[in-house]
Amino acid sequence: MTKNSRSLTDLSQSIATVDLITLxxxxxxLFCQVAYQEGDFLxxxxxRASYYINGKQVTLHPQGGLAVGRLVLPLLPAGTQAVxxxxxxxxxxxxxxxxVAAYEGRSLPALIIRKEAKGHGTxxxxxxxxxxxxxxxxxxxxxxxxxQSALKAVExxxxxxxxxxxxxxxxxxxxxxxxxxxxxGLPFQAVFKISEIQQRSAALxx
Length: 206
Prior knowledge:
Layout: H1 20-35, E1 36-42, E2 48-53, H2 56-59, H3 62-72, E3 82-86, H4 91-103, E4 110-113, E5 126-127, E6 136-144, H5 148-159, E7 163-172, H6 177-183, E8 188-193, H7 194-205
Parallel strand pairs: 3-4, 3-6, 6-7, 7-8
Antiparallel strand pairs: 1-2, 4-5
Helix pairs in contact: 1-3, 1-7, 3-4
Family: Belongs to the purine/pyrimidine phosphoribosyltransferase family. PyrE subfamily.
Pathway: Pyrimidine metabolism; UMP biosynthesis via de novo pathway; UMP from orotate: step 1/2
GO biological process, one term: pyrimidine nucleobase biosynthetic process
């Protein structure tokens, strides 16, 4: 971290009001400090990688979660009526965005999608408020690699009668996810590309 920059923790009292450009830079630094690791890792996709990003170290961080909510909310497509994501990585993200929206006077329910149907009660795949059929829902994800995890969420939402209007990820590993979403006609955005995190991480270490 440069001598002139301040971390999210340093700005804990102003995190709710600091401008989004500054907030984005501070969130990038937090990713570098607590989520990005280099080594030999096996990913959920089955691929091996020389680095790993544990997004939950950021999204479950008190200031990090608030920063995520503030930065993702303006990225939602117009007309979005709810946010949703596949458990577990997306759980704190959809919650943060929903809560930030409430502070701005907007009702934006959060939906959590199970990987397997609940084994009791309603046996539902989707937890959260029941919305009218055809409601526009944006899928949120922490890290996109091949894109398959978010696609599972898309499929469950469509089966439930909702209209998925896009996918937003905190990090794009640039390993095919964006291309997959383009092929099926789903708009995709990422707050950070992995190249930006790697460049910033190297700068902070230097």
